[in-house]
Automatic annotation (TrEMBL):
This is F-box domain-containing protein. InterPro entries: F-box_dom (IPR001810). Residues 1-48 form the F-box domain. Signal peptide: none annotated. It comes from the Eukaryota. SMART domains: FBOX. It comes from Caenorhabditis latens. It holds the Pfam family F-box.
Length: 298
């Protein structure tokens, strides 16, 4: 069947019957097929709000795309071929014009599984991400969600990262994760930092930052943060840290972009709330005299 010779209206109707995963698989057939899908199905791609690369195990990557109402539109997984055999070129296909091959292993109710050659994990992830970015477009938030024993590689055009590690990492090692995408909307760090952050860390300029580490220097992060929202979990925060921060924030000499701050401490002794309120000259608004309403969007 010469599908590419069919009238456009027929091609469009046929594509409407395919899921996102099926359209993606068809796009691997040829460059002409890919361009046709992009042209006729571009309006469907706008339904994708974000796409997440989630790595829990060393050899497996789960890729999920969802709409703004959290409806799952795409779910595939990439698995390392443990047999250490080269993928037959007749079975698989090349990604990104480089020598990294995938072949479709099976399809489940929750998505499709693809296999890649052993020890090609980083190359595969980079090539797949670049392909997705070119195929689905730049309007999607591409995110990384990693929870294993190795830092993620640096990828271009990443809007948000969540990194949870079991091993101690240095500030320099952490910084290398954001070389290709230094300006991200949201970054969450959950691990033990071995040392301090880099002097001019990209984390200081992150729009929304969540940092949970038991070995961080509070002055490094709290007083150099230049983003909008900061969520800090730290056991070494003191009353003096809080008072100094609030006074500098109120003076408008620093933190001009700051909109929200949340600090949680594991200390057994609570803060001296009365002292903090007095030293920082905090005033309470009367609820009956203000109509201010704050809303938080996940």
């Amino acid at each position: 069947m010469r599908f590419l010779n069919f009238p456009t209206v027929v091609q469009r109707e046929v594509f409407e019957c395919f899921s996102f995963e099926e359209l993606l698989a068809l796009s691997f057939c040829s460059k002409r097929f890919r361009n046709l899908i992009q042209s006729l199905q571009k309006y469907r791609f706008t339904k994708i709000d974000y796409l997440v690369y989630r790595k829990i195990f060393k050899e497996t990557v789960f890729i999920t795309a969802r709409s703004s109402d959290l409806k799952q539109l795409l779910h595939i997984s990439l698995h390392e071929d443990q047999k250490n055999e080269e993928i037959n070129s007749n079975e698989g296909f090349k990604i990104g014009g480089v020598h990294c091959s995938l072949y479709k292993s099976s399809t489940f109710s929750w998505g499709s599984m693809y296999m890649y050659e052993r020890n090609q994990s980083e190359l595969i992830i980079e090539c797949v991400h670049n392909y997705f970015y070119a195929f689905f477009g730049s309007s999607i938030d591409y995110q990384i969600d990693l929870n294993c024993d190795k830092l993620p590689q640096s990828l271009k055009n990443i809007a948000g990262s969540r990194i949870g590690l079991s091993e101690n990492m240095t500030g320099e090692e952490l910084e290398a994760c954001f070389t290709s995408s230094p300006s991200q909307k949201y970054i969450a760090i959950l691990f033990k930092l071995n040392g301090k952050l880099c002097p001019d860390s990209v984390l200081y300029n992150t729009e929304n930052l969540y940092f949970n580490s038991t070995h961080i220097d509070v002055d490094d992060l709290l007083f150099q943060f230049r983003g909008k929202c900061l969520f800090l979990v730290e056991r070494n925060v003191t009353d003096l840290n809080i008072i100094r921060f609030l006074n500098e924030w109120k003076s408008n000499r620093k933190f001009q972009n700051m909109k929200f701050v949340s600090i949680f401490t594991h200390r057994r002794n609570r803060f001296d709330v009365a002292k903090v309120l007095y030293e920082a000259d905090i005033k309470h608004l009367d609820p009956s005299e203000t109509t201010l309403k704050l809303e938080w969007k996940q």
